[in-house]
Every structure is written in C-alpha cells, then in structure tokens.
Design brief:
By secondary structure, the protein is mainly β. The protein is about 10% helix and about 40% strand. Strands 1, 2, 3, 6, 7, 8, 9 and 10 form an eight-stranded antiparallel β-sheet that branches. A two-stranded antiparallel sheet has the order 4-5. It is elongated, with a radius of gyration of 21 Å.
C-alpha cells in the first residue's frame, strides 16, 4: 500500500504505509438558540468540522542513527503551511486537502519504527482527482451548468 503526499510517494522518503484510517462520516457542529416563552428551538448554524486522517506505516534504517535521520527527513518533508493533496492508494481516485499535525511513534527498535502520521483536513470530504464533467456548453442560451467546488470549502468559482 502506498500514500501520495503533495505529489510525492511517501515510500521515496522511507515510509511504507500499511493502514489508513479515515472517518466515514465527518462530524457536524450546530448551535441552537432557545428563546424564552417560545416553543421549540432555532438552529443558528450547522457546519462540518475538520477531519483527522491517520496513516500507519513503518520507517526503516540500517542503524539507530540512520533510522533517526530517516525519521527527521520524513518529518521535514511533511511540514507545510498550506493544504496539500493526500492520496492513499486504497482510494486513488480521491484526494484530501490536509496539513501534517504530528507523528506518533508506536514502537521503535534499532532499525525499525512503527509510526502513525496524523493529518488534519479542513474539508470534510475527499475530492475526485480528475473532473468528471467536460461540458463546454456554458455559453449556450437556456443551458444550465453546475459549477463544482474545486476542493476548498471556502473557495468560490470565478465566472468570466
């Protein structure tokens, strides 16, 4: 099993993936307003919260110092201030916009480390890697064209 992070396979950084944990249904948060002397409640807002994705894997080294170097190289590669695409091979037609949060070391020997890479995804769902709509009829009169979000829930289409 492989994982692609920001266009680079993690196996090139010495990380071999053996498991991916993704929430099946993202959590939602809502706020309810209860007005005195009024029956029922008013829903002020309801929105999705971010997801946490965990990639489980193994990093190997030829010696304890080489293993430490490989772990530091991997951690440096994973750092990003911006959202980047994470594509696990078990669902290679989807990507998640993620940022690396932490590396949890499960077990470590002289030449092997079992680690969990924890990512946060502000978007609640994964997005298709390739578009499935190539409709070029937007300029036709009386035609409807649906503009889909490109992966960021805060992004809006630009129409020219």
């Amino acid at each position: 099993m492989d994982t692609n992070f920001n266009g680079t396979n993690l196996s090139t950084k010495g990380f071999t993936t053996y498991g991916v944990t993704k929430p099946l249904n993202p959590k939602q948060r809502q706020e309810i307003i209860d007005v005195a002397k009024r029956q029922g409640a008013i829903q002020a807002y309801k929105k999705f919260t971010g997801n946490q994705l965990t990639i489980r894997g193994v990093v190997t080294g030829t010696s304890p110092s080489n293993l430490t170097d490989n772990l530091e190289t991997l951690a440096g590669f994973l750092y990003s201030d911006d959202d980047v695409a994470l594509i696990p091979s078990d669902q290679s037609d989807r990507y998640w916009n993620v940022q690396f949060l932490e590396e949890v070391e499960v077990r470590r020997t002289e030449s092997l480390a079992l680690i969990d890479l924890v990512f946060t995804a502000n978007d609640p769902f994964g997005y298709a890697v390739t578009a499935d709509d190539s409709d070029n009829t937007i300029t036709t009169l009386d035609d409807t064209f649906v503009i889909a979000n490109s992966g960021h829930f805060y992004a809006y289409p630009v129409i020219t």
